[in-house]
Amino acid sequence: MKTAIIRFLGTNCDMDCKYACDAVGAKSEFVWYEETTLKGFDIVILPGGFSYGDYLRSGVLAKFSPIMQAVKEFAKYGGKIIGICNGFQILTESHLLPGTLLKNKNLRFIHKEVYLKKEESNCFFTQKVEKNILKLPIAHGDGNYFCSNDELKTLEDNSMIVLRYSSKYANTNEEFNPNGSIKNIAGICNKNGNIFGLMPHPERAVGDLGIEGEEIFRSFI
Amino acid sequence: MKYTVIVKPKKAILDPQGKAIKKVAENYLNKEIKNIRVGKYFEIETETDDKDMIEKLAKNILSNDVIEDYEVKES
After folding, report:
1. What ipTM was assigned to the predicted interfaces of this complex?
2. Phi and psi torsions of A47, nearest 5°
């Protein structure tokens, strides 16, 4: 399988994603945001960073770039897409995933390691994850996931919630929620499971940096 | 033509920025303030009169309908 790592103006986790792909032995290539096709690729990564300087709302301006039209087409035919951090924000703004990401409840940029409980879902990217609890870093200012009650019901009824912030022992109480996200949501997928958005950074926990990110990057091989 | 677009957080949405400002404002004024909510304000100039285009812009780019409402005014 071949992975496209999209680079927008302001993307800054592109090299980390490349490092993670290399570490697990997955083929990958950078794709510039002005490109119009994703021909030949099986997986797309929308990496983290600050596309368009987070102007207006995080992720909104990137959705109008040429490559995002190709990403939408790619999604339509079942292409596998993972949006990490700012990539997740781009996916919600593009309506490829429901809801949106608000400013963190405490208004601070949060940078720390968190525990995540893997929920039962048909998300392509977590099928090879063996652990039920993952420890991954987060680093965001706008990571407070929010959606309407109807959307939340859709997420729950269709097992679209993939990761929740939790304790080391899978307790998903409010006290283990770093940013105020609804129902401790850290990552969701679409109904078909081919589009995955998450705030934590698996690419920063691979190789010399850790092992738990590899659980997710294993699906890229 | 000149238009103004105002984007506001929906009533049901918590606005932590507004809350932080309210707290500081109350300390500064030494008075109670009922509520402060933070929105965005845009001034847009066009050659021709095209309110529909501005509506489209406000709906699809300037606001996010999950969390915000918008208002378009001709000025």
Report:
1. 0.82
2. -80, 175
